[in-house]
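Crash report, auto-generated. Payload:
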Amino acid sequence: DSGVTQTPKHLITATGQRVTLRCSPRSGDLSVYWYQQSLDQGLQFLIQYYNGEERAKGNILERFSAQQFPDLHSELNLSSLELGDSALYFCASSQPGLAGYEQFFGPGTRLTVL
Amino acid sequence: SQKIEQNSEALNIQEGKTATLTCNYTNYSPAYLQWYRQDPGRGPVFLLLIRENEKEKRKERLKVTFDTTLKQSLFHITASQPADSATYLCALDETGFQKLVFGTGTRLLVSP
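Recovered output after restart:
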């Protein structure tokens, strides 16, 4: 158990809908990262937050947005869903968010868009 | 363009042998490199981190080397066990702020 929790574990929805994925980092970790993993793309970095502020962005679609709240939990919002958004979404956390720190991954949310 | 390459074919070895996995990268100058293990349907688990000024790092049966001239890292598991069967991912920090870029991973299968 990494100490990172993600809810829900599974999500099945239809195209065009909007969903919210939730992540609670390990106690004391200030940085939260979101990743998308699909069969053809591997593990792709989406976005990083550090103590409530956005720090780095990957190839995150405009239909996707995220935020980190004062209690450090984070949410990833996916809207206007398409079939291709079906994937495993992982949240990870780390300590200061500086270089050289391992990331602790949550169990993931499996999103299926029908 | 920037690329991280890991052998996409599965690596099959016998229990007790040493498994060696390769991670090659181009157009990056990472200060450090990380290795993770991922089991099907689960989140990656951190194994080792090696910095650019370190040639080798060990942890129990695991060993990682980092050659910044060759732009290559090798990951070794000695005395492999069936429980070591998993996908192993290497990752580089693209920005120095933990924006990790992952390779596609190599699946290791250890047969009894």
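Post-recovery validation: Chain B touches chain A at residues 31-32, 34, 41-46, 49, 51, 89, 93, 95-105 (CB under 8 Å).
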